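Section 5: illustrative case.
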């Protein structure tokens, strides 16, 4: 596989995702982070002449991409409480067959989760390397954003949860040291055994509660999030925006629905042969 095959795959997936989900009459659109989102913004720029759309970035790089495309950014915390984003687009590091995602490979995950949960529809765009049936198949670790002072404690707790060798992520620069996120926090990358899906647990393939060091996606996400010092976990799981909205409209508000959905309603994978494979919530 060449770099140009991967880049063409990302571009093809972005073009199709935007043509099938971007509505030029939208008012608020979330824009994720990473290398794939650049192609999404290019495709949106092509498709839209509406100057009234406000684009909500998920961090510094994301805001730069919006501004460089000549689009208008608006800070997440300047949105009034009742405003939902019409849609959010983002990349992913790995996606399983139930559309659970690992994100944070580029150190953005906290703002990405805020934006995904605020969107009526969250759509992911990725290349073929990210397309797996279970999480932690090809992508090796769960990225976790933590308060700097908590690093030793969180590393210790992650080992207790079954992660063999969690590591503080460092910069690749000559001046070495921990990598800082947009919140000035640190990232820990924690490996675990390949994660079970909810259907694996319901069909008796394992308990997924970590008792034998094997975890189901949602259970692991919750267990890590509960550790003091953890700001956010790079697992996007649970409900998608459509499911969360349906429950909210029936007044079935609980801890899973009050914050909105984290999972995408659709993932577009650019393939090696130039085609695009689409995985949707209905099919999962
Ligand atoms: O931290 C970065 C984000 O979660 C990205 O969306 C993710 O890492 C995918 O990035 P890329 O599109 O560069 O593969």
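Designed sequence:
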């Amino acid at each position: 596989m060449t770099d140009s095959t991967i880049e063409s795959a990302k571009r093809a997936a972005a073009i199709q995702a935007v043509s099938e989900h971007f509505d030029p009459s939208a008012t608020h659109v979330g824009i994720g982070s990473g290398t794939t989102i650049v192609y999404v913004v290019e495709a949106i720029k092509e498709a839209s002449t509406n100057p009234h759309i406000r684009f909500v970035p998920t961090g510094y790089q994301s805001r730069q991409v919006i501004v460089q495309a000549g689009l208008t950014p608006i800070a997440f915390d300047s949105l009034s409480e009742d405003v939902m984003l019409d849609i959010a687009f983002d990349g992913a590091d790995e996606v399983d067959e139930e559309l659970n995602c690992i994100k944070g490979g580029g150190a953005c995950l906290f703002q990405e989760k805020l934006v995904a949960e605020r969107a009526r529809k969250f759509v992911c765009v990725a290349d073929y390397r990210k397309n797996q049936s279970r999480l932690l198949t090809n992508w090796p670790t769960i990225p976790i954003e933590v308060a700097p002072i908590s690093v030793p404690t969180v590393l210790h707790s992650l080992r207790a949860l079954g992660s063999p060798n969690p590591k503080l992520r460092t910069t690749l620069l000559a001046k070495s040291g921990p990598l800082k996120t947009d919140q000035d926090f640190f990232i820990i990358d924690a490996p675990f055994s390949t994660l079970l899906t909810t259907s694996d647990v319901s069909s008796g393939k394992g308990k997924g509660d970590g008792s034998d060091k094997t975890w189901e996606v949602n259970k692991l996400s919750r267990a890590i999030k509960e550790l003091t010092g953890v700001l956010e976990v790079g697992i996007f799981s649970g409900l998608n925006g459509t499911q969360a909205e349906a429950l909210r409209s029936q007044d079935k508000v609980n801890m899973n629905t009050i914050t909105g959905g984290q999972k995408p309603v659709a993932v577009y994978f650019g393939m090696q042969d130039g085609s695009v494979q689409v995985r949707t919530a209905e099919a999962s």
